C-alpha cells in the first residue's frame, strides 16, 4: 500500500504477486502444467533446437497456470527448466 495515496488499494503486494507473478510450481504442479496435449506436442516437435523447445514448453506451462507470458530470470525458473529437460529431452545436453 502506498501511504498518502488517493488511489484505493484493495490488494497487498504479495496478493498481487500471487495473482499476476510467476508461478512457483511443486513437483505435482510441474507434472500437470508441463504435460503436453497432442497439439502442443506437435508444436514442440516442429522446433529444431532443444533450448527453444524447452522455452516453448516452459511458456506453455506458465500460460496454463496464469494465462499470461513471462520474461524470466534463470534463477527463478531453474527447477522448472531442469524438470522439462529431464522429462522431454533426457538424451540431450
Short summary:
By secondary structure, the chain is an all-alpha fold. The chain has helices spanning 13-20, 27-33, 38-45, 50-66, 74-88.
As a whole number of angstroms, the C-alpha radius of gyration is: 16 Å
In percent terms, what proportion of residues is strand?
under 5%
Low-confidence stretches: none
Q: Looking at the structure, what is the overall shape?
A: elongated
Using DSSP, what is the number of strands? 0
Helix content: 55-70%
What is the first-to-last residue Cα distance? Answer: 46 Å
Mind explaining what this structure looks like?
This protein has a domain at 26-88. It has helices at residues 13-20, 27-33, 38-45, 50-66, 74-88. The chain has 93 residues and is an all-alpha fold. The model has no long low-confidence stretch (mean pLDDT 90). The relative contact order is 0.14. It has five helices and no strands.
Amino acid at each position: 500500500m502506498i501511504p498518502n495515496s488517493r488511489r484505493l488499494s484493495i490488494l497487498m503486494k504479495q496478493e498481487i504477486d500471487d495473482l499476476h507473478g510467476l508461478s512457483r510450481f511443486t513437483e505435482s504442479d510441474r507434472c500437470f502444467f508441463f504435460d503436453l496435449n497432442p497439439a502442443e506436442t506437435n508444436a514442440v516437435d516442429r522446433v529444431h533446437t532443444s533450448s527453444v523447445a524447452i522455452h516453448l514448453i516452459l511458456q506453455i506451462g506458465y500460460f496454463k497456470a496464469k494465462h499470461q507470458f513471462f520474461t524470466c530470470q534463470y534463477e527463478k525458473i531453474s527447477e522448472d527448466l531442469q524438470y522439462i529437460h529431464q522429462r522431454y529431452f533426457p538424451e540431450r545436453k
